[in-house]
Design goal:
Low-confidence stretches: none
CATH topology of the largest domain: Tumour Suppressor Smad4
Shape: globular
Radius of gyration: 19 Å
Largest sheet: 10 strands, antiparallel
Mean pLDDT: 93
Number of helices: 7
Structural class: alpha+beta
Oligomer: single chain
Length: about 300
Amino acid sequence: MKHLFIMNPMSGSKKAAKFLPDIERYFEGRENEYSILYAQHPTHIKELCEEYAKKGGYRIYVAGGDGSVNQAANGVAGYDTPIGILPTGSGNDFIKNLTDYTKLKNLVKRTVEGDVIKVDAIKLYDEELFGYCINILSIGVDAEAAYNSTQITRKYGITGMLAYLLGFFRVLRQKKTKFDVKITVDGQVINNGYVMLAACTNGKYYGGGFIPVPHTSFDDGIIDMCIAEARGLDFVFSVLPKYMKGKHAGTEGITFPKGKSISLESKDMLKVNIEGEIIERRSIKMKIVPRLISFIKPKDLQE
């Protein structure tokens, strides 16, 4: 088995290089073949992952944030090539589904020696396929907040949940708290009016640690949703602390639909947050593809 490390020097914390000494130390004196490449442009990670997945026989490790992990997943989709994550982003949300990386030492060793698991992916399309989401897609106040938090990170270097919260409060100042959306789940219209947010989840965490659907699972063949009704600011401020901790189940005005295919449609152009990356669409369709992507779960080792 060969090992390919892809470093994204422009990920949120810009600290991908911090893993280089551990990589070199781990492979010193071993016969395993490994190589290190650097992403040169926004889609380079996807291109590299697809290139090496086609060759076969590789485990690919991405040092970057959630956007980098999404690029890697899209690159290996349809191939049996596993992805390992060395987190250097501003949120690092997807890896939290695999392990609490903040409490682990020797993450390179744990990941290289980790076990491979299969994860669902959310196939995204309008008139044609334009990608896969492995974690969370959302519209509404949180997508607006994610867009603002990206600007805050770039300008001030603030990352994680703090950046997201600052972005959220900027949304409130802008009074962007309701969005006219038609939501269809498995062919049935469940909403045709204003919402505060709608999150479609495969993974559990986003925005630096927010938990929109506490019971979601990335290997159950289902897209779990959280929909919050458009209400006043008192509702926003009462729900936010619960939403941060995944304690909002049972709150009036919040529902948790689920299905295998979902469409979001609006007369207005909406910001869509796909794992921290923002696109703009009037409509987006999605369906779950079970066990499409292979990920490496870091191994538990004796310290």
